[in-house]
Design brief:
Layout (H helix, E strand, L loop, with lengths): L2 H7 L1 H15 L8 H5 L2 H13 L4 H8 L10 H14 L4 H20 L6 H58 L7 H31 L9 E4 H15 L5 E6 L3 E4 L1 H18 L1 E10 L3 E9 L34 H11 L3 E6 L3 E9 L2
Parallel strand pairs: 2-4
Antiparallel strand pairs: 1-3, 4-5, 5-7, 6-7
Helix pairs in contact: 1-4, 2-4, 2-7, 4-6, 4-8, 6-8, 7-8, 8-9, 10-11, 11-12
């Protein structure tokens, strides 16, 4: 009996073995029914048997061994994805998912080997079975991982959104404490600290919201309106300077800086670049905006050590943080999204951002076309 025929002839017992093993690795205190534990196992084994009977060329064999050439419909892929979704909903960890397939492989091959003596045809069946199992496992892991990432992104988005209300209350309370004629010096200092901390938190929350939006497939929204880049640079320098009074920020404006951009987004971009320069640089910070014929170029330059060469290829990737001095860590260090958001804002305007770093200085340059 071929292995494909053996799987179909013993489908009920194989699925029962699958469910029994799954019950041993499920969450403690969770009572899953046999139907829940068997879920898509019957479909997967049926599809695996059908896949083993499908003629396969040597080229197709090589493609499958590299994870290529899978048909997303009509083979094991859709069943594997359904199974991954079910196991995630039932609380199984990724290691549990892998353990299920390892047990299934061993059970099927062991029970089939008891039927008759080995032969060349049986060896070919084992090869085809392992290929199908590996493809199914790979598809399940991919689906499981994608779903976990999506859940995390949605959670981060909801968390960031819900944090905006209490943060707004904190900022408004700090503003209230600074009003009146009886404000003492200590009270003013405490309220100013609250305002600066709230401003830093707001930048991180805004970045996190934008990150989750792009991760979930939405484009970063921009609303174009007449703007003056010079004014936006000065505003960003004042705002960041108030949060980091120790920083010296110089702004140089040259040429025609008028155009149509999203003012809030450009201010967010400039704020992120300035905070990044303060966190990772030393000495004065120089902002230069130059109006050219069809574009406006804005650069933020800071002194200090160079960015490590190995960090440059992933510098604008999300959740990437380079080294910063101990005194600049903590809440001010951010969450590794600032430069990623800067790139997304530049791209949303049809522009670009790049960095040049040497022992003398590090310069981030943003090029924004005039619409």
């Amino acid at each position: 009996m071929s292995l494909a025929d053996f799987i179909e002839a013993n489908l009920d017992s194989l699925v029962a073995d699958w469910a029994e093993f799954a019950s041993q690795i499920g969450l403690e205190g969770t009572s899953l029914t046999d139907h829940e534990l068997q879920d898509s196992a019957r479909m997967m084994l049926t599809r695996i048997a059908a896949d083993m009977r499908t003629p396969q060329s040597e080229a197709a064999r090589k493609a499958k061994s590299r994870g290529e050439g899978a048909n997303p419909e009509g083979d094991v892929t859709d069943a594997a994805q359904i199974h991954a979704d079910d196991r995630l909903a039932q609380g199984f960890k990724l290691n549990d998912l892998v353990a299920e397939f390892r047990a299934l492989r061993a059970t099927v091959l062991r029970r089939w080997a008891e039927q008759s003596a080995p032969s060349a045809a049986r060896i070919e069946d084992v090869i085809r079975f392992n290929e199908s199992i590996d493809q199914t496992l790979s598809d399940s892991i991919r689906q499981y991982s994608m779903q976990v990432e999506a859940i995390r992104d949605r959670f981060a988005g909801v968390l960031a959104h819900d944090l905006r209300s209490p943060l707004g209350a904190i900022a408004n309370s700090a503003e209230f404490l600074l009003q009146g004629d009886d404000v003492t010096a200590s009270r003013m200092k405490a309220a100013a600290n609250v305002q600066r901390s709230a401003a830093r938190m707001k930048r991180m929350i805004d970045d996190l919201l934008d990150y989750t939006r792009t991760r979930l497939g939405d484009a970063l929204p921009v609303t174009l309106a007449p703007q003056d880049i010079g004014r936006l640079c000065l505003f960003a320098a004042d705002e960041v300077g108030a949060a980091y009074p120790q920083a010296q920020i110089d702004v140089v404006l040259t040429g025609d800086l008028a155009g149509a951009w999203d003012g809030d987004r450009i201010s967010q971009l400039m704020g992120n670049l300035l905070v990044n320069a303060i966190q990772h640089g030393s000495g004065d910070i120089r902002v230069v905006a130059i109006g050219r014929d069809k574009v406006v170029e804005v650069s933020v330059c800071n002194e200090g050590g160079p960015i490590p060469k190995e960090a440059l290829p992933t510098l604008f990737d999300p959740l990437t943080r380079t080294h910063s001095p101990p005194e600049k860590r903590g809440i001010a260090a951010g969450i590794g999204l600032g430069l990623y958001i800067c790139r997304r804002i530049a791209l949303a305007h049809g522009g670009q951002i790049h960095v040049a770093s040497s022992a003398e200085a590090t310069t981030f340059t943003v090029t924004l076309p005039r619409p």
